[in-house]
Amino acid sequence: MIHSKFDLVVSPANGFSQGTGQIPTFDLANNHPFQPFIPDHPDLPFPDPIAAESGNTESPPEYRSAQPSSRAQPNLRRRRLPSSSPDPSVTGIRATPEDGTAVASPNDSIPPGRADGHSSSHKRRRLATMRADGLSTNGFPQASNGSIPTSRKASMNGQSTTASNGESHTNGSAKSLANMSYYGHRREEVTRIIMQSLYEMGYGGAASMLSAESGYQLETAGVATFRSAVLGGRWSEAERILIQSFRNGGANNTQRSSPDENTLLLAEDADRSKMLFYLREHKFLELLEAGDLGAALIVLRQELTPLKYNVERLHALSSFLMCPTELLRDQPGWDGPHSVSRERLLAKLSRSISPSVMIPQHRLAVLLDSVKQSQINNCLYHNTADPPSLYSDHMCDRNDFPLQVTHDLTQHSDEVWYCGFSHDGTKLVTAGTDNTVFIYDTSDFKVLQRLDDHASGVAFASWSPDDSKLITCSQDKKARVWNVETGRCLLTIDHHSEPVTAAAWAADGESFVTASFDLSSQLCHWSLRGTSLHKWKGGFRVQDCAVSKDGRRLVAADTDSKIHVFDFQTYEEVICFPVASKPTSVAISRDSKHMLVSLAEGEIQLLEMDTSFVIRRFSGQKQGKFVIRSTFGGADENFVVSGSEDSQVYIWHKDNGKHVETLGGHISGCVNSISWNPTNATMFASAGDDCAVRM
């Protein structure tokens, strides 16, 4: 309800205050009278306090609507306490240059009570978006970690007062409350992170009330102005703030207790050229999208080029000038429409701004994810895709882990060298020294297909991305492509002069790679018609190969104890590095970030794909003479699982390296291959020399 009167009288019945005057008031318990309340809106932008106070019409409409305006009459003066000092950055009070007398700005609010502790006869209800008063009778502001100027409540004899539904009440010592930690955490940090999350979830009114109650603001005036400039596409204003911030000392600007709306507190590693490049690059792209090639060319030549930053990216931007406008969005590096791309730009720039003044996006969600991941990492038997609850500590039951043999597949008459589930988990392929390949239905483990066209042992098989085709690799020096549904051979690759050891599909399923011991053609890229698309230079024999799920990388393990990583788009070798002993297999994680390499001397290494950095080593299994194919396992690939020459299966936790289980099941000989069902976390298969495949 809106009232047009100013002098307030608290009504216990409805909380409204009425009197005479001109300032509209409303009940904070109700929704804002000027805009609808939108609960649980995931992408609601933060309100712009600077734009709201100044009436800046350049802010985007959705941004301006995030908070109400709260202007007082310009002819009203705020009563000052005798011992207080001005704090213009947070209260709107400004000192005149002649005598330093503080005068109220149009945005000042009336304090909730008199300095002597008696209630004022006239009170104004504080709106949800109005800043709390910043004065204290003892001269001490509320405690802060020094990162931002806090909006402080007026206090009487050291007692903090807050306005709520027209009532003035004390809530303990402001100084002692601000200095108190929240169970070991800084109160200000916790409060501001909660405020940010409330805005992100769509509870803007609750966030504003929390700000008024606590006396903390989410952002400084400078950050709010910078945010508004970036999201509003006011590039000159955004640049001016950045340049002024670097001039004022950037990250070393700690002596400024109250940064104004024209400066930012920057991160220690903030790079001026980098931040300006991001801004001007975005300006260039938007001009191109608008069809203003002349202005875009000026930005490229006169603003971006002089920065001498990221020359490779400059060349890419130059190529955009020759691209038709309708095709720009399809170019690599194009960042999408304004509403999305400006948010992404702000997120990139925020990494160079001190988090103490501009909290990184979705900070509470990131912290909660960290807590969840920590619990998962410490849960030895975690094997579910469902995220842990926040309500209680997480621990999976060992009884829910696949520890018992449920099926014994004995169709093979000799050693089984390979087993692998289809991507949808509905089928299982097995292959061995009996020259035979079996395809099973995993719902009942009945044989769907028996493929026996190979003339020698089959060492490997690979499912196409859509599971409609299967490649088999044999010691008869041939690779065959099969139709899974009919069991018909679609293509035979007989180009190699040595056994074909492995194969891998391209991400689109339209081509594949074969690996061989053949020194002259150890790696070949084929189309589904059997046409050779590329043949890598010879000189080494390949034991195993794999293509990342994103289609960017081809990894090959050779018999000379080296791992080769190729760019699968350009065929160029990205990196080649040695390993401690002969690698017997290589597997790539589903997220294409890590690879798992099995070594003949009984060690398994988890490495970063791009850097070849060894993240973790796993040992304990027995390996020396035979090829053993280890792999990732579990619902979220939380495990590393491998066979062993002692007839057992070993399982480790991928993230903490702990040994989880050692499982029996095979009668004798080596366990050669392991495969974990990608859609059923409670099922994995092992293939061994005892002619059996066990589930």
From TrEMBL:
One of its GO terms (cellular component) is GID complex. Keywords: Repeat, WD repeat. Residues 135-174 have a biased composition (Polar residues). PROSITE patterns: CTLH, LISH, WD_REPEATS_1, WD_REPEATS_2, WD_REPEATS_REGION. WD repeats lie at residues 409-450, 451-492, 636-662. InterPro entries: CTLH_C, LisH, WD40/YVTN_repeat-like_dom_sf, WD40_repeat_CS, WD40_repeat_dom_sf, WD40_rpt, WD_repeat-ST_regulator. Residues 219-295 form the CTLH domain. This is Protein FYV10. It comes from Penicillium atrosanguineum.
